[in-house]
Structures are given as structure tokens and as C-alpha cells.
Amino acid sequence: MFDARFQTFTDAAAPEQGTRHLALLRAELARRQLDGFIVPRADAHQNEYVPPCAERLAWLTGFTGSAGVAVVLAEEAAIFVDGRYTLQAAAQVDTASFAVVPSFEVTPEKWLQAHLPAGARFAYDPWLLTLDGLERLRQAVASAGGTLIATDYNPVDAVWLDRPPEPTAPVTLRDPALAGEATADRLERLRAALKAEKLDALVISDPHTMAWAFNIRGGDVSFTPLPLGWAILPAEGRPTLLLDGRKLQPEVRRELAIHAELLEPVYFDDALALLASSGATVRLDQATCPAHVAARIEAAGGKVSKGPSPAALMQATKNAAEIAGMHAAHRRDGAALARFLAWFATEAPKGALTEIAAVCALESFRRDTGALKDVSFPTIAGAGPNGAIVHYRVSFATNRAISPGELFLIDSGAQYEDGTTDVTRTLAVGTPTAEMRDRFTRVLKGNLAIARAVFPRGTSGAQIDPFARQYLWAAGLDFEHGTGHGVGAYLSVHEGPARISKVGTVPLQAGMVLSNEPGYYKTGAFGIRIENLQLVAERQVEGAERALLGFDTLTLAPFERALIEIALLTSEERAQIDAYHARVRAEIGPLVETDAATRLWLEAATAPL
Length: 609
Fold this sequence. Notes:
Elements: H1 18-31, E1 36-40, H2 56-61, E2 69-73, E3 77-81, H3 86-92, E4 99-102, H4 108-115, E5 121-124, H5 131-143, E6 147-150, H6 155-159, E7 172-173, H7 176-179, H8 183-196, E8 201-204, H9 207-213, E9 216-217, E10 230-234, E11 240-242, H10 250-259, E12 261-263, H11 268-276, E13 281-285, H12 291-299, E14 303-307, H13 311-316, H14 320-347, H15 355-367, E15 372-375, E16 380-383, E17 407-412, E18 414-416, E19 419-420, E20 423-428, H16 434-451, E21 455-456, H17 461-473, E22 484-486, E23 495-500, E24 513-516, E25 519-522, E26 526-529, E27 532-539, E28 548-553, H18 571-588, H19 596-605
Parallel strand pairs: 1-5, 3-4, 5-6, 8-13, 11-12, 13-14
Antiparallel strand pairs: 1-2, 2-3, 7-9, 8-10, 10-11, 15-18, 16-17, 17-20, 18-19, 21-28, 22-23, 24-27, 25-26, 27-28
Helix pairs in contact: 4-5, 11-12, 14-15, 14-19, 16-17
């Protein structure tokens, strides 16, 4: 009945290969007279989702998460993962070959200081480390008494014999009505920002920024419509855009040639050298730019200005057309989600539904809109104890039945040309326990507190983050992930620079879209997360002495009524839930009018508490 075309369930992890692949890499390191090597889960652009040819960490260790680092020495090896992936890494990695180390307890650099032998030659790939990452690594190796070596060819690639080729998906032009700003105007805004900082040029190393600046999209990686490439934007003169020519159809090539000189990526080093030969001061984005680029510029006589890309805030602050597109995308997505939730309410109690079946159904309902371009990340669908794995990804090997008496956590999103979505709902199958209701309601109260927050301009995400945790803290509970991340407009579902987290220092600005997703996870039992996307918007408060901001909720999906412990809610919170549900009913109802089963489910799900 249902299928999934944008995601698969084959577990790419191969723990049994860890020992063999590790031996191959160590032999290659010995051949090069190297004593160690660092393998980040990264491509040259620091993308969250990387092409298959860049999945070096997965090939080496078996770990398939989106963040991690392996350090390989002659006698020891370790993989470092954050709090989202500690359980997943332990299940996917051969722990006889690799120690699994939580990076929030011991960083790779600290581990190296303690384990790297004095006098060792430790290597890295300069295309895969950022400037900040290289500096931390350099200090760690020096502290251990070792020598740091930049490789000219990645040793993993030398022994990965069936490594996939580089991607060559077609580049497409962004609809001007959805972009809301002409390419020439975006480039001019960037030039003005460079001049204001007395910079001669910007190297655009982040494909998200390249896609935004030149109003293009692509398909070189899964889940995010990105073309991989590079751009050089001088403060004066024409930009240079470096894209594989096989990706450019004649119409696209003609349009891009209006705005930039087009070169093959193989000429990137030459273009950097030419730029730097005049002594130019070049801004490199410290979060995404590989160390190789800085070394090339400095070798050619240029000066490196390390700092944030001036495009980051421009890109994160959506214009009126992008905001309208996000609203349209969320209404469409809300209708598809309502159909899924109504279907789930009927099918789950029968006891035959599985995690994979639920993922396939939700993707199918989204495809039925006729507008789905991709899912925005692999759907997280965790039944019972699998829901406690924060970034759980179901496979044929782990697929679990969704049983009565359990909770089911489903975190999913979609890519439409007019916007990107990301929504999480936790659902009860059968009768939930008192503990489940208590924990769910505390998470819900945190979500509601964020949604109704009003705060002065200049407030950062770190200042907002405790709003989501306060009700969990009161019971001695917490969650080990950020409360919210930025979201792009038909771009990355995880977009910087702002976020709602303990380390979110960037002030929130009107036009930003961020998630609001507190959670609670009881290992081995259940997981709870409630996520809506929110638009930062101006607020008017009578008598206010400062300019104020707040959040407009974009996501349109009812909360799970069976899990709400009404006695824990204040009258303000009850009114807030009722108002939100009334809005969901008003906006989604007309879109499911012809679907009797969904319409009846929606009316019940959004009735006043």
C-alpha cells in the first residue's frame, strides 16, 4: 500500500568490517611512515549530509550517524560521538577494534594528548578539517610531543577500493517568486558587507550559501537540495563559480554566466592563487572552510580573515516571499501529516504496524501532495525503547512492531520547493502509564513556554533554552540535545547560525525559522519529543520600552491528547493549546474536507480540552 522512495532501510553499518578496514588503513599509514590519522565524518564543505564518496567514517568504523570522529593510532583506535549517538555507535561499531568515547566527556584532542606517543607523526586531510578544527588538533599533537602532517591524498581513499564516484546531479534555477530576491541583488548585498569589513573577497565554501547566493539548487546529497561546488566573491568585480560542468544544462549555464565566471572545480587552487597574488584579504568561513584553502591563499601571498560568512545572517533571515513559502509548505505538510495521524490512530491499535510501515505511510501521504521533492532527513520512527535513541534510524535489522501500551516517536520533515518542514509528534498506542503522561506533559509545557515567549531584541538562543527545560528540571529530569535549530527555505533542515541551546550565542532576529523541540528519554523504555517550527516575528506590547520579538508557530499538527495530563497545566496553557488546535482545525480542515476519516479524526483531535 505504501512505500518509501526517498529513504531506505538497509543498515549500511558493517561492524564486522571494522577490523579488516582498520588493518588496511594502518598498513597504508605505515607505508607512508605515519603513526596516526584522524577521520572526521565530513566532506570538504562540512555538510551534515555528505555524498556516498565522503562516507569515510562509516566505511572505516560502521557508524552511520551524521556526526563523529575516529582517531586511529598504530595500537589504539577510538570513535567519538555526541550525546545523540552514544547508543547507536555502541550498536554499530566493533568495540573490539574501536573504543566508543562520548565526546562530551572526552574530546578527540584530549584523548590524543593522553594516547599519542611522543615523537609520533600524526596526519590529517586538510580538505576535511576547518581552520578551528586544525588549530585544536595542532595544539593537541604538540602537547603530546608529536608532529602534525598534512596529507596530499587521503589514506582512507587509498584503501577504499570500491569508493563511489563524485556526484553530478543537475543544477536547477530557483524560481524568483520563491527566492524573493534577484541573484544580482544578493551578490551586491554580500559585496557591501565585504566592503564594510574592509575585505577584498569571500570564499564561499558552504554549498548552502552558494545555493542561496546564486539562487540555485541541486541534488548532490540526500535530503538537502544542494549542488556541491565553490565560489569566490570579490568585493569588486565578477564572482567565480566552480561547478562540475556535467551538472549544468545550457539554460542554467547561460543564466549563471550572467552573474559569474564559470570554472571546473579542478581549477579551484589556481583561482585561489590568482586571487591571493595581489595580497588580497580574504574572508574564510571558520565553520565550513577547509584548512587547505587557507594554506593555498597564504602560500600565494594573500591574507586570511577567519570569521563568519557575511551571508549567514542574510540567509537565515527570510524575506517576505520565503516566509510566505514556508507557511504554504507547512499547510500542505500539515494536511499530509493529518492524514497520516488519522491512519495511524486506526491501524496502530491492531498491533500489526511496524516502524518501517509507519515511515513508508508518512512519506506516501506527503508524496500524494504532488509537491514533495525529498524528505528533509531520514525519518526517526522509534517504538517503545527505540524512541529513547535520540537519532534512531530504523532499518530492516532493527524494525520493531508498534505495540499497544507503548509510545511511538516520529520525527520527520519534507522538502518542497516553497519550504522545508520538520515536525515531531509522540503518540500513545493504547493506554499510556501515569509516568508517560507526566513526562509528556512536562515536555509539552516546555514547548508551550517557548512558543509564547516574548523577549527583547538581542536575546540569544541560550537565554531562551531554559524555558523548555524548567518543568523537567523541577522533577530532576533533562534532555541531552539542543532545544532548537535553524531551518532553511528549501535548503538545510539544520541551518545556522542561530539556535536555541545552551551554546546558542547568536541573537535571534525577525525572519529566522527555528525548531522548538524539547524531549525526554528513558533508556530502554520510551522517548518523548514534541517539535514545531517557529518564525521569529516582531511583537507589540503596550508600554514596552524595548523592541520585542516572539515566535509565530508554522507547524500545524495536533498534540497527542491521550498523553496530556490536564492537571499539570495552568489555565493559560490550556487556553494556549485550545487556541493552537483551533488554528490547526481552521487551516488544515479545508485541505482534508473530502477525506471523511481524516476530517472526523481532526475534529476530535483539535476539540477543546
